[in-house]
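Students often ask why we bother encoding 3D structure as a string. The short answer is that it lets us treat folding as translation between two languages. Here is a chain of 274 residues written in the first language.
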Amino acid sequence: MSAAPDVENIVEEVLAKKKYHSIDRDLVTFIAATEIKKRASLKEAVKATTGKLHQVAGAYFKETPDYAGYLRELNSLPDALCDPSSRQFCMNSMQAHASTHERLPILAEFYTTLLADLQPISSILDLACGFNPLALAWMPLEKDTRYFAADIFEDMCEFIRQFFLHFHIRGEARVSNLLAHIPQESVQVALLLKTLPCLEQADKESARRILLGIRAQYVIVSFPVRSIGGREKGMPAHYSSQFEGVLSELGWRYQKFQFTSELAYRIEKGDEVT
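And here it is in the second language, the structure alphabet:
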């Protein structure tokens, strides 16, 4: 009779896979510890853990990003983010991640609508950021705005760090598992874009806990209106009903914005910025 699977064995096998070698170990451990309770063998537990990781994050990449290639191109650019060649680089790179790719047709409208009347904005916290920091050129921010980015992929975070460095942005990027820890920077605006449905695949009770843990005056939360495959399945109505119920219970004021490819909420959380 084979021994029951061990969490560490599951984590090591998952991290050995090329697709997940750079993912946050803490997140893999969190998911493996849940899946191990439902699986009889190591093989089944590894398969279930990678399946959950695909739902949480892996599905957003059709292929592994060519970070080495991105960095070579980045280093050849002028250090002005407003330069046409820099903006084109950002647009091209954002196509590699499904979430930002979907937002490209509405990029300027999205950020102008959600941020313009909050100016001046001195600080941003971008949670589960993906390639969203590359949209900085389309955000109505102050030149010296502090930008804190967090995601679960270390190679992505390193690329974002080099992006900040090249364009002289007051930014930081770090690996963070939102299911276990919310970055505690106190900011004017926090972004949580098309993220909650993904995290709820691993923890159905995570949305309320994450919202409460964010330290921001305003939190912008968004949801997809179609599946990654492009199917319309009543998603806006579903997310509206579910999320507005949470906001009602929390007693926070909010505004709702419907874009062609995204449903967004701007929540007035009112936490003091330090």
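Translate back mentally: The longest strand covers residues 216-224. Keep this in mind for the problem set.
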